[in-house]
Amino acid sequence: MNIIQALFDAVSTGAVYALAALGIGLVFGVMRLANFANGELITAAGYALIILWPVSWPLAIVASIAVAVALALAMDAAVFRWIRSQPPATLLIASFGVSILLQRVYDGVFGTNVLSAAVAPGLATSIRIGELRINLITIVSIVLAGVLLVAVRVFLTRTRMGLQVQAASEDFRAARVLGIRAGSVIALTFAISGILAAAIAFVLTAQSGSVGPTFGVQVTLFALIGSTIGGLGRLGGSVAGGFLVGFAVSLFTTFLPAWINDFRIAFVYLLVAIVLVIAPNGIFASRTSKERT
C-alpha cells in the first residue's frame, strides 16, 4: 500500500480517537471520573442516526446530538452526582456499571443484532490523486475533528464558562470556594462530551453503516488508554494520547502481515505498557502532577 495513503488513513483514525479522548479528558479533569460509559453515548447517537437518517438527515443529526447530550446529563443526575466525593476508582467502577446497564437496555430495545442503514452514503465515494485514493468520509472525519478540537479550545480559553471549566479541572474544591457553580460546570462538561460522542457516532456510522449494543465500546476503550498515556487531567495530553493510539491501531492494521494481523490489538497494548513503564504519569503529564505522585 502507498505509504502516504496509509498515513492519511491513520490520521483520520487518530482524529476520531482524539475526539473521544477529549470527551473523556474533559469529564476526568473536572470530576476525576474516567467515564467508560462514554461509549454508550456514542452508541445512543449511532442508533439515532441509523433509525432517522432514512427519514430526514437533518433530523437524524439533531436527534443524535440531543440524545447523546440528554443521556450524558441523565448519567450524571442519576448516578455520578451522588458519588462525586468518592475516589476515582469508585467512580470508574460505577461508570463500568452504567455502561453494562445501558448495553443491556440497548439489547432489550433494539435486539442483539446490529441495525443497518446508509448514513451519509455520498461520503462513501472516493477521489484519486495519482496513486492516492481518498474516501470523502476520511476527509470529513479529519476536518470535523479539527473543527471541534479548535472550537473546544476556543471555548475553554475565550469564554467565561470555559475558563470556569478550566479552573475546576485544575482544582475543583478551590474553584467552588471562589464561587464557581459546581453543578453548572459538571453539567456543561457532560453536555460537551455528549456533543463529541455524537460527532464520533456520525463518522463511525458513515463508515460502517451499522450499530449494535457495543458499538461505542472499542473506541472508548482506546480513548481511555490514549488519555492515560497522554496524561489524564491534561486535555492536550489526552487529545495527543488518543490520536497516537488511533494512529498506531491504523498503522498496525495496515502493515502487520496477515498471519499476525489478528494480534494487532495485543501490539497496541504492548506499546501502551512500554510507554507507561517509561512514563507512569503519561508522556504529557505536567511536572506538578509527577511531584504529587
From TrEMBL:
Originating species: Leucobacter luti
Record InterPro entries: ABC_transp_permease, BCAA_transport_permease
Keywords from the named record: Amino-acid transport, Cell membrane, Membrane, Transmembrane, Transmembrane helix, Transport
Keyword Transmembrane set for record: yes
Swiss-Prot/TrEMBL GO biological process terms: amino acid transport
Bilayer topology: Multi-pass membrane protein
Pfam families named in the record: BPD_transp_2
Upper lineage: Bacteria, Bacillati, Actinomycetota, Actinomycetes, Micrococcales
CDD domains: TM_PBP1_LivH_like (cd06582)
Official protein name in the record: Amino acid/amide ABC transporter membrane protein 1 (HAAT family)
Places the protein is found: Cell membrane
Major location (coarse): membrane
